[in-house]
Amino acid sequence: MTDTFEPTIIGFTCNWCSYRAADMAGTARIKYAPNVRLIRLMCSGRLDPTFVLKAFASGADGVLVSGCHPGDCHYVEQNYKAMRRFYLIKRLLAQMGIEPGRIKLLWASAAEGAILANEINKFTEEVRALGPLHWNPTQGIEAPAHAQPLVEVTA
Amino acid sequence: MTSNGKPKFAMYWAASCGGCEIAVLNIHEKILDVDANFEVVFWPVAMDAKYKDVEAMEDGSILLTLFNGAIRNDENEHIAKLLRQKSKILVAFGSCANEGCVPALANLSPVKDLMDTVYTTVSTENPENLRPQPTTTVPEGELYIPTMYPIVRTLDQVVDVDYYMPGCPPESHQIAAVIDLVIQVLQGKAQLPPKGTVIGAGGSTVCDECKRKRDVKHIKEFKRIQHVMIDPELCILEQGVICSGSATRSGCGALCPAAGSPCIGCYGPAEGALDFGARLMTAVSSVIDSNKPEEIERILDGIPDPAGMFYRFNMAGSLLRASRPAWDKK
Ligand code: SF4
Ligand code: SF4
Ligand code: FES
């Protein structure tokens, strides 16, 4: 079924660059995969690791984080902060069994609509190849048939 | 069972270490107030009572149950449900019941790996490779031992919880204050807080209660506590040793940093933090003094076990709850 699997990807975009790039791709009628649901932040520095964890915990198969190119952040160096968080989150996710390929950091200026569209398409294919994640930690919890009554052993 | 007309009290341990029980006994002579005001009907560490005694009680007949320990197996779950049914006020007591605590670090491994580690590693003599079996037939009949679930859960992931009392273990002065409050409520002198309140703790962070001096944070290298002589006055995180104070709920009076040791987060997530590790990762990545990818990666190498470091107490209570190999059967 992997060939028909449509991954769900949550994309966090910066208001000043990547979100506008996506907008530009739209006005220029550049097509990109509809799998990415874009969420606009004022700056990539607003990316709380909670957002990434919540996206995966709620069923996302991939997460895209994008912001202004290094040096171009409208809030001076918040995108460097985002980058440091990104590297740390990626290490944590690997330990949790979430492949590094499910999360991507992308710098895109407002003029780079075509680049953004292209990268979204590539990432969508990479996540598709990894298959569904469908986070569901309580699956498989089942009380054994003899659970009650319990035989008590007292010292 | 005798009934002396006093409100009934119970305390239980599920997957836990026993430290919460010690903390309760550590309230010293206050424990006499518990005895004066309550009839203790069930408390396995302190008195003899059987599960069937609890099963025979009327629903809602226990006024106050302090439940410590996480839900690791079907016995834990059964008793959690039983005590929920029999108790008016059910308190998730201590870190294990609140957020999984150290037992929930097992959520990083499948049960099979845990068993292999316990029953076959070099320090274990088990030449026949024996494993505990959930059921055994003996001449008298079938014997059961509890079945481990794939992951550890918190109490409120299994039953409805009235109040949350964090800490590993909760500080004795906080326990004494909570007991005082309940007694005052019984005497009509105070009111219970709204359901769902975190009791016996503060509403801010450990950093907020910490007396250490904070400056501008520029970290080029993370070190482990055993490799540093901790300066007695300066913030521990600023010395390159990860301290969880900024993510952790206040309540202990910042005991560990005061003693020269980093806060490891035992009071759980600070008010408003949805995910403990996310809050701490935010703080840690903002002190890293580098904008170069390779250098950032090198600095992060100083944190060899991020999951264990950022979720030491909060794995079961976190957004992801468990690693994929632990729960995914595929
Ligand atoms: S990080 Fe630790 S040492 Fe620094 S102020 Fe917070 S609690 Fe104190
Ligand atoms: S400083 Fe942190 S680890 Fe130490 S008792 Fe307080 S909350 Fe727990
Ligand atoms: S404004 Fe775009 S990343 Fe900061």
Describe the structure.
The complex is a heterodimer of chains A (155) and B (330). Chain A has a single domain (9-130), classed as Rossmann fold (3-Layer(aba) Sandwich), CATH 3.40.50. Helix content of chain A is 35%, strand content 15%. Chain A is built from 4 helices and 4 strands, in the order βαβαβαβα. The termini of chain A are far apart. With 330 residues, chain B is an alpha/beta fold. Chain B folds into 3 domains: 8-100 and 154-186, NADH:ubiquinone oxidoreductase-like, 20kDa subunit (Rossmann fold, 3-Layer(aba) Sandwich); 106-149, no CATH class; 206-310, no CATH class. Chain B has helices spanning 19-25, 30-37, 51-56, 74-86, 95-99, 111-120, 172-186, 206-209, 255-258, 276-287, 293-300, 306-310, 324-327, and strands spanning 8-13, 39-42, 62-68, 71-73, 87-93, 135-138, 141-144, 148-153, 163-165. The termini of chain B are far apart. The relative contact order of chain B is 0.13. The chains are: A alpha/beta (155), B alpha/beta (330). Bound molecules: iron/sulfur cluster (2 copies) and FE2/S2 (inorganic) cluster.
Portion of residues in helices of chain A? 25-40%
Going by helix content, strand content and strand pairing, the class of chain A is: alpha/beta
Q: What is the number of helices of chain B?
A: 13
What fold name stands as the CATH topology of chain A? Rossmann fold
The largest sheet of chain A has its strands arranged as: 2-1-3-4
- Total number of beta strands of chain B: 9
Q: Architecture of chain A, CATH level 2?
A: 3-Layer(aba) Sandwich
User: Mind describing the biggest β-sheet of chain B?
Assistant: 5 strands, parallel
Text of the CATH class of chain A:
Alpha Beta
Class from helix and strand fractions of chain B: alpha/beta
Binned strand content of chain B: 5-15%
Please estimate the helix content of chain B: 25-40%
- In whole angstroms, how far apart are the ends of chain A? 54 Å
User: How many structural units, i.e. domains of chain B?
Assistant: 3
Q: Would you identify the CATH architecture of the largest domain in chain B?
A: 3-Layer(aba) Sandwich
Give me the strand/helix succession of chain A: EHEHEHEH
CATH superfamily of the largest domain in chain B: NADH:ubiquinone oxidoreductase-like, 20kDa subunit
Mean pLDDT of chain A: 91
- Biggest chain pair interface: A-B, 41 and 57 residues
Number of helices of chain A: 4
Q: Which residues of chain B form runs of ≥5 with pLDDT under 50?
A: none
